[in-house]
Automatic annotation (TrEMBL):
Keywords: Isomerase, Pyridoxal phosphate
Necessary cofactors: pyridoxal 5'-phosphate
GO MF: alanine racemase activity; pyridoxal phosphate binding
EC code(s) of this entry: 5.1.1.1
Similarity comment: Belongs to the alanine racemase family.
Catalyses which reaction(s): L-alanine = D-alanine
Entry keyword annotation includes Methyltransferase: no
NCBIfam families in the cross-refs: alr
Name of the encoding gene: alr
Annotated Gene Ontology cellular component terms: cytosol
Species of provenance: Crenothrix polyspora
GO biological process annotation, one example: D-alanine biosynthetic process
Transmembrane parts of this sequence: none
Sequence ranges assigned to domain Alanine racemase C-terminal in this UniProt record: 234-358
Name of the featured protein: Alanine racemase
Length: 358
């Protein structure tokens, strides 16, 4: 038996979710986004489960190097690109593709004499105001990249949507329109959509889609769970009860004594805490599955433990199984209870949590 938190990873669910991507974007190529250790699911595990995607995307050069050294041969795009000539060297050595989003990167490329070795995605800032060239300078940079010896042609053209998860926000329409206007004359592959974009904005499909969160079975929309969108959660998080004890009316529970016992209560102590990545800010009442039944969190989340109200399960005992999120308890619901988004929960799983592939 595993003592403490463990995560179960369903690799068939990853492939199911990829099929969902393909169903939404049948004509597009798929660049699977596996940055941040594949959203906490394990970079290599997920890369191996996704052998038939057209490319991978990571955020950082070191993530790309890690994949190459593990034997990954697919195209890999580094979404933040390089920030020095040294990093560009590494990109070339490991045959990674780079995003170019700023003038400093362009200046480095212009000094490289080698011929046509580097695959580039040129990024336009259509309103996110994070990375990318403004529409007003985009065409000049595109022309400049045509003149760079080292850059393979054609250069890909991309942008990133800021509000695609809100189907009522026409900001997305304006971003797509601007991108299409500026790039209309160019014979080059285009990419716009993240998970939310490819699910609800058909005009964003373009030549390549860049799904991240949906591959893990998680909804990009704040008010929906992945399962209601036909996705299957990949990760479930589990632990066990390690103590069960009654506390009396009038007592308090846990750090700060912040939870006051209003009725005699049976408390279950679960071996999971923020040291495992369970959210510190999960509110009192956050559901936890004990023996498959919902029990509410009570008291504060501590590093190694949480406490739950087991009054409805008088026969619960140490060793009984607990699920913190998974198929029957959507991670989206837990994220809402902790005032965060599910992305942060799965990304935040820590090293001591054991991973089990099924
Ligand atoms: C993270 C990221 C994605 C994937 O976003 P999801 O919301 O997880 O689908 C796509 N494109 C870029 C540029 C990103 O940074």
């Amino acid at each position: 038996m595993i003592v403490g938190g463990y995560a179960v990873l369903r690799l068939d669910a990853v492939r199911h979710n990829l099929a969902k991507v393909r169903a939404c974007a049948p004509a597009a190529k798929v660049m699977a986004v596996i940055k941040a250790n594949a959203y906490g699911h394990g970079l290599l595990r997920i890369a191996k489960a996704l052998t038939d995607v057209d490319a991978f995307a990571v955020a950082r050069v070191n993530e790309g190097i890690y994949l190459r050294e593990a034997g990954c041969t697919q195209p890999i795009t580094v979404l933040e690109g390089f920030s020095s000539a040294n990093e560009l060297d590494a990109i070339l050595r490991y045959q990674l593709a780079t995003v170019v989003h700023c003038v400093e990167q362009l200046a480095i490329l212009q000094q490289m004499p080698e011929q046509a070795q580097l695959s580039v995605w040129l990024k336009m800032d259509t309103g996110m105001n994070r990375l990318g060239f403004k529409a007003s300078t985009f065409s000049d940079v595109y022309q400049a990249l045509q003149q760079c010896a080292i850059v393979k042609q054609p250069v890909g053209l991309m942008t990133h949507l800021a509000s695609a998860d809100d189907i009522n926000d026409d900001f997305t329409v304006r971003q797509i329109r601007l991108f299409n206007e500026v790039t209309s004359g160019y014979a080059a592959p285009r990419s716009i959509a993240n998970s939310a974009g490819l699910m609800v904005w058909p005009e964003a499909l373009a030549d390549w889609v860049r799904p991240g969160v949906m591959l893990y079975g998680i909804s990009p929309f704040p008010d929906r769970a992945g399962q209601s969108l036909g996705l299957q959660p990949v990760m479930s998080l589990h632990s066990h009860l390690i103590a069960v004890k009654p506390i009396e009316k009038g007592e308090t529970l846990g750090y700060g004594g912040s939870w006051h016992c209003e009725e005699n209560t049976l408390v279950g102590v679960v071996a999971i805490g923020y040291g495992d990545g369970y959210p510190r800010h999960a509110k009192v009442g956050t559901p936890v599955l004990v023996n498959g039944q919902r029990a509410p969190l009570i008291g504060r989340v501590s590093m190694d433990m949480i406490t739950v109200d087991l009054t409805s399960q008088p026969h619960a005992k140490p060793g009984d199984p607990v699920m913190l999120w998974g198929n029957e308890l959507p991670v989206e619901e837990i994220a809402n209870c902790a005032d965060t988004i599910p992305y942060t929960l799965v990304c935040g799983i820590t090293q001591r949590v054991q991973f089990i592939d099924v």
